[in-house]
Amino acid sequence: MSTHAFTIDDLKRILHTSAGVPEGVDFDGDILDTAFDSLGYESLALLETCGSIEREFKVSIDDDTLTITDTPRTLLRLVNHQLVAPSAS
């Protein structure tokens, strides 16, 4: 498990590494509530990104949850919720 919260900077880094940087999108602006498809990321790019997040932060993002994760804010909440939730033993 990661020892720090999953931040917007982490998400931007992983998005850029996993799926590239779409042209014409200002990632320095406030993108928290901008839909991923408006940012230029389709479902395949998000799957790749979520796979990278799972590996780096040791969380699990299932396909059903991914379908309702349409903005960076919702993805940040999802990952951070798992980072602070006690693990089931």
Automatic annotation (TrEMBL):
It comes from the Bacteria. InterPro entries: ACP-like_sf, PP-bd_ACP, Ppantetheine_attach_site. The keyword S-adenosyl-L-methionine does not apply. Keywords: Phosphopantetheine, Phosphoprotein. PROSITE patterns: PHOSPHOPANTETHEINE. SUPFAM superfamilies: ACP-like (SSF47336). Residues 30-78 form the Carrier domain. Gene3D superfamilies: ACP-like (1.10.1200.10). Pfam families: PP-binding. This is Phosphopantetheine-binding protein. It comes from Streptomyces hintoniae.
